[in-house]
Amino acid sequence: MITQEQREKLRGWFAGRLPDDLFEELVEVTVDREEITVVGRIPGPKLAEGVSEAEREAAVEGRIQEFRERTRETRVGVAREAEHQFRRKVSWGVECAGQRALFTHVAAPVMTRLRQPERQVLDTLIAGGVARSRSEALAWCVRLVQKHTDDWLAELRDSLEHVERVRAQGPDAEQD
User: Fold this and answer.
1) How far apart are CA 28 and CA 91, in angstroms?
2) Which residue has the higher pLDDT, 107 or 40?
C-alpha cells in the first residue's frame, strides 16, 4: 500500500516524463504491489454524421490499435525507466470516444485456500456458464465485491494511508 503523497508523486513523474503529444490527457495512474497502470485519453476518429454503431465501434477499435502500434517504442522506453525507478511493471491503456482499452497488463497469481462451501460457490458459477474455471470465477467474485463496496474500500485505503504516515514517523524511519 502506498500513501496518497507517493501516488501523487508517481502520477507527477508520469505527467512530466510522458511526451506532450502522447495523450490528450493523462486520465489515470493506478498502482499496486506488482504494477503501475497508466491510462491516457486519445482523440476519437473523425466520422461522418449518422454512421452506424457498428461502424463507430470498429473505428474506435482501429484508432486504439493504431495508437498502440505507433507509440509502442515510446511507451516501452518510458516503462523501462519507470520499472527501474519504481520496481513495478508498467501497463498502458487508453480512453477513446468513451471506450477504455487496457494493453498487456499483469495478471498476478493469488494463492488461496477455500473450504467446501466457498468452492461450491465457484463451481456453481462455472456450471452456470458465468466462468470457465475456479480462477475466473474467483476473479468474477472479486469484481462483484469491488463494484458494490467502493465507498467501504475507499475508506479502508484512507485508513491504511494514515497508518503508513504514522509508521513513517516512527523510530525506525531514519534507518530507511
Assistant:
1) 12
2) 40
